[in-house]
Amino acid sequence: MDLFLQQTVNAISLGGTYALLALGLAVVFSIMGLINFAHGELMTIAGYVLMFCGLAGMPFVLSILLAVSASVVAAVLMERIAFRPVRNASGATLLVTSFAVSMVLQVLFQNLISVRSQPVLLPQILSESVRIGGFVIGVNKILAIVATVVMLIFLDWFMKRQKAGIAMRAAAEDFAVARLMGIRANTVIAGAFALSGLLAGVAAVLWVSQRASVDPLMGFMPVLKAFIAAILGGLGSLRGAVAGGFLLGFIEIYLAAFLPPEWQEFRDPIGLALVVAVLLIRPNGLIPAPALKAQKV
Fold first, then answer.
1. What is the pTM of this model?
2. Which of 107-121, 172-186, 197-211, 245-259 has the least mean pLDDT?
3. InterPro entries given for it (predicted)?
4. What is the pLDDT of residues 174-183, one digit of tens each?
């Protein structure tokens, strides 16, 4: 029972990170119909800022603020420089653009910083553990769960109570009508990218706090998993992205913990098979978006 509870905590921690990344993808897709595969590089940018802040001896709290801010700024610049000029192009053009931005940033990281993984200085408290009953929980996992809950509450409040969030929800429902009501396309799309950058920055802090390192390809695999989670939950659905992220986290952790040793080498294929099985039952995802196909502006 203790092992099951231990692994459940690990699954919630990992699933929360996937949920935040999937939310960032879903926010942009719901408005633009764009899957931004350069989303992972926003994570990497935040990770490198954490690294440089640590080397400079800055307080960790300040490092987090600077890392998340850098991710937000990078997301807004990415939209303005790379995606706005091709906004009215086909979906294929937008997709290729996102891959191009991702590759360019990866090459810049490799040539300007390092091709190897770099250590990130973290506070000692993040490596400590807390014993609750018969099992041990890492402080970093507790903070990851708390940060995920706080971010989800903030996002729910922002989307329902703030004018910018309401405008994004309206644009996600029907952008053409939303523009007729006076909502400016540039403002809403830039806001969506800024929000995705915020989510990517927080996810990067959680990811780095458990691995204590950063490399040029750090964001690739998490965002690939987040993309699977977004599809699993219902592409374009914010609640679906959260559900898909947590479900994928539970699948990964439970398979790693409870699959027999002789089956561990097949863990990833079995996980994908379970995802496919869910999609066979729910083809549009766990919580489908109201509009399955977003309109481009």
1. 0.90
2. 172-186
3. ABC_transp_permease, BCAA_transport_permease
4. 777 777 777 7
State how far the Cα of 181 lies from the Cα of 23, in Å rounded to an integer.
26
Length of the chain measured in residues: 297
Number of other residues whose CB lies within 10 A of the CB of residue 137: 17
Q: Whose structure tokens read 């481009």? A: 296
d(CA 230, CA 225): 9
pLDDT per position as a tens digit, 110-151:
999 999 999 999 988 888 888 777 677 888 888 889 999 999
Instruction: In whole angstroms, give the CA distance from residue 28 to residue 273.
Output: 27
Cα distances from 30 to residues 96, 170, 219, in angstroms, run 18, 10, 22
**Could you count the other beta carbons within 10 Å of the beta carbon of residue 278?**
18
Question: Which amino acid makes up residue 24?
Answer: G
Could you tell me whether strands 135-138 and 213-214 are parallel, antiparallel, or unpaired per DSSP bridges? unpaired
Would you report the helix, strand and coil content of the chain in percent, each value rounded to 5? 75, 5, 20
Q: Could you tell me the domains of the chain?
A: 2-293 (1.10.3470)
Q: Which among 86, 118, 78 is positioned nearest to 102, based on CA atoms?
A: 78
Cα separation, 37 vs 16, in Å, equals 19
Distances (CA, A) of 184 to 81, 86, 198: 18, 17, 21
Distance separating alpha carbons of residues 76 and 176, to the nearest angstrom: 22
